[in-house]
Specification:
Number of helices: 34
Largest sheet: 5 strands, parallel
Shape: globular
Distance between the termini: 26 Å
Low-confidence stretches: 1-5, 236-253
Pfam families: AAA_22
GO molecular function: ATP hydrolysis activity
Radius of gyration: 28 Å
Oligomer: single chain
Mean pLDDT: 90
Strand order of the largest sheet: 4-5-6-3-7
CATH topology of the largest domain: Serine Threonine Protein Phosphatase 5, Tetratricopeptide repeat
Protein name: Putative ATPase
Strand content: 5-15%
Helix content: 55-70%
Organism: Nonomuraea rubra
Number of strands: 10
CATH superfamily of the largest domain: Tetratricopeptide repeat domain
CATH architecture of the largest domain: Alpha Horseshoe
Structural class: alpha/beta
Number of domains: 5
CATH class of the largest domain: Mainly Alpha
């Protein structure tokens, strides 16, 4: 991703930053002399805001970008490496441990990694940081946490609340300026004058300059005068009512002002708003209003009230409204979420609401499973990518609280996300955990088996994939499970291809194509046509292979399917190239690349660009060919095993490299190759698609 002249994923600032110049400069100075800096402080003090501002100001100093990893949605430490990999421009499909993949990726990069909200994963964060810093000499890490990570070379910057004026001059403290700024956003035209100055200063003193507490208080000025606001905050030790203070006094301690502000905000909410606040705390990352209705509504909280309650909580700054490309969503600040989770547990509803959350995302996964082969693939990709934090939370709950076969069902139903959308590492992690935990034979286990087998194929693990597919096929045939039988045969065919056995691959694929009994699930036939076309083409039977790929295109067009069709186009491009038709090969490869780029399918992109290189050679475009080889090499490195280890594809790639080097000479080849390899991915793909 590239924004202007720098790389990274830092969010823009939605509100004006008040004060904190000294803290930001201090963090920048520490990063100048230390590779690990942790910004610490109590909840709500503004650690994340300071860290993100410092990172943004330093972004031009890091050639490979500044990358934010939001850790608050994570439930367990095992998910940390996947979250880091997801945040980076890295899509590794290999079977290597993800920490090893990260270490290799970062090894020669000059990059700043921002780990935000580490306190609930301190040990996992410390271990990951030690590993990555040891592997990557030019990597620097900026963390935020309520406590230090405890690493040897860590430099800690502790953040205090904003200064509060001790006398009558409000300009002596940034706390009052923050209150005024946020109040003006809540109540247009709001200003400080002689009538309200003392009350506003009392509010800031009472809240001890804590930014989050001040922002929550500012939201109340829509309905309360400054004087009334100050009065309501006076009894700060009783505003939490029946809340369990022992929970808040755990290490690290909650700042008393934050207890006051959040507890008071809770009291001022209606009973329905309080209940929704507590129940919505089960969501990780963003909150979809439709999901809230399904997860949180019941007789006490009717679904028809949910939209209005969400708006009301946003007005009170309990929720933050965020319009996205996937529809309107809400977000809850980490500290607000934690308080809600505590209240939910106090209500005795924690387990029940988390089950409903799990069941909602299981139903969503099933809908995606049923709809993926159709015209809405892009929409499903966008939606599931946005919902990844919630999917993780649902899977982790299903694994920790095993009931029925929910973990297997959810992990298996997400096959279309793990396999086509490039989340192979994480998909394998959850599929293997679910399969190891629940060994009872049944449809859920069989689906998870063939899904895992396909993931293993894409990681180049042909033998493991074949073993799992054979086991799945045996059980499926014995139970009359047509869908699992066909998918297991497809997985066997794909595994045979990457192991170089095209005859066995074609045989397994034909069993699917020729079978009269079919399931309602049409994907097996699409995948079998793909596998058969690839195996026959690689064996030199081009007419037979192209016929299968034409059949695939027809089927995909009937369903409005894009993802599998694009793989068929890549294979068709390879066949056209082998038949001496480079112009047709280029057209098919470009068509495939457009789809794979939209779906962020790194494997498909790399395969398509590998065809565009020899097509450029045939057109006499040596420099373009070398740049394409470099670009493909960049992507293959993020995928893992080059050419998925397929012997024929490896040989074709090497032959092209040799020919282009001969056309250009070593020096010109190396320069063009490096230009392609080092280019920004967006620009590289645009260049690849510009070929005529």
């Amino acid at each position: 991703m590239q924004v202007g002249q720098w790389q990274g994923n830092l969010p823009g600032e939605s509100t004006r930053m008040i004060g904190r110049r000294g803290e930001v400069d201090g963090v920048r100075a520490l990063l100048g002399r230390s590779r690990l800096v942790t910004v610490t402080g109590v909840a709500g003090v503004g650690k994340s805001r300071i860290a993100l501002r410092a990172a943004a100001e330093l972004r031009e100093e890091f050639a490979d970008g500044v990358w934010l990893v939001a850790l608050s949605p994570l439930v367990e430490g095992s998910a940390l490496p996947y979250a880091i990999a997801e945040a980076l421009p890295l899509s590794d499909q290999s079977s290597r441990p993800v920490t090893e993949v990260l270490a290799d990726y970062l090894a020669d990069r000059e990059l700043l990694l921002v780990l935000d909200t580490c306190e609930h994963l301190t040990e996992a964060c410390a271990e990951a940081v030690r590993t990555l810093l040891a592997a990557a000499p030019r990597l620097r890490v900026l963390a935020t946490s309520r406590r230090p990570l405890g690493c040897a070379e860590e430099q800690v910057r502790t953040v205090d609340p904003l200064p509060v004026p001790e006398g009558d001059d409000w300009r002596e403290g940034d706390a009052v300026e923050l209150l005024l700024d946020r109040a003006a956003a809540t109540v247009p035209g709001f200003t400080m004058d002689e009538r309200n100055r003392d009350a506003l200063m009392r509010v800031c003193r009472r809240l001890e300059g804590l930014p989050l507490a001040i922002e929550l208080a500012a939201a109340r000025l829509r309905e309360l005068s400054p004087a009334r606001l100050a009065e309501r905050l006076e009894d700060r030790f009783t505003v939490l009512g029946t809340t369990d203070h022992q929970v808040y006094d755990a290490d690290p301690p909650w700042h008393q002002a934050l207890r006051t502000a959040i507890g008071w905000s809770h009291q001022l909410c209606t009973p329905a708003e309080r209940l929704l606040w507590a129940r919505a705390s089960v969501f990780a990352g963003g909150i979809d209003p439709v999901a809230v209705k399904q997860v949180c509504a019941d007789d006490r909280l009717p679904s028809w009230q949910i939209p209005q309650l969400l708006e009301s909580l946003a007005d009170k700054s309990i929720l933050i409204w965020e319009p996205t490309g996937a529809g309107d969503r809400y977000r809850m600040l980490d500290t607000i979420r934690e308080f809600g989770a505590i209240w939910l547990k106090d209500l005795g509803q924690d387990e029940r609401v988390r089950r409903r959350h799990r069941d909602y995302y299981l139903a969503l996964a099933r809908d995606g499973d049923a709809s993926w082969i159709g015209p809405d693939q892009y929409a499903w990709y966008d939606r599931m990518t946005v919902e990844l934090p919630n999917l993780r939370a649902a899977l982790q709950f299903a694994l920790v609280r095993p009931e029925g076969h929910t973990a297997l069902e959810l992990a298996g139903a997400l096959w279309f996300f793990w396999y086509p959308c490039g989340f192979l590492q994480e998909g394998r992690h959850f599929l293997e955990r679910a399969l190891a935990q629940d060994r009872a034979p049944g449809p859920a286990r069989r689906k998870a088996m063939w899904a895992c087998a396909l993931v293993l194929v894409c990681q180049g693990e042909g033998a493991l994939a074949e073993k799992l597919a054979v086991e799945c096929a045996a059980e499926a045939e014995a139970q009359g499970d047509v869908e699992a039988t066909l998918m297991a045969w497809c997985a066997m065919s794909c595994a045979a291809i990457i192991m170089g056995d095209n005859a066995r691959a074609a045989e397994a694929a034909r069993k699917v194509i020729d079978r009269e009994e079919r399931s309602l699930f049409c994907f097996p036939e699409l995948l079998a046509c793909t596998s058969y076309g690839m195996s026959r083409t690689m064996a030199g039977s081009f007419e037979d292979g192209i016929a299968a790929l034409e059949r695939l295109r027809t089927l995909c067009d009937q369903h409005g399917e894009r993802w599998q069709r694009a793989y068929g186009d890549v294979l068709r491009a390879q066949a056209e190239l082998a038949c001496g038709r480079p112009e047709q090969a280029r057209a098919y490869a470009k068509a495939a690349l457009e789809v794979k780029w939209r779906l962020h399918d790194s494997l498909g992109m790399a395969m398509a660009i590998d065809v565009l290189a020899p097509a450029a050679v045939a057109a006499g475009e040596g420099e373009r060919a070398a740049r394409m080889l470099g670009l493909a090499d960049q992507i293959w490195d993020t995928v893992g095993k080059h050419q998925i280890g397929t012997p024929e594809l490896v040989a074709t790639r090497r032959a092209c490299e040799s020919e282009v080097r001969g056309m250009l000479g070593d020096r010109a080849y190396d320069e063009a190759f490096s230009a392609g390899r080092d280019t920004d991915l967006d620009a590289g793909v645009a260049y690849a698609l510009s070929a005529r």
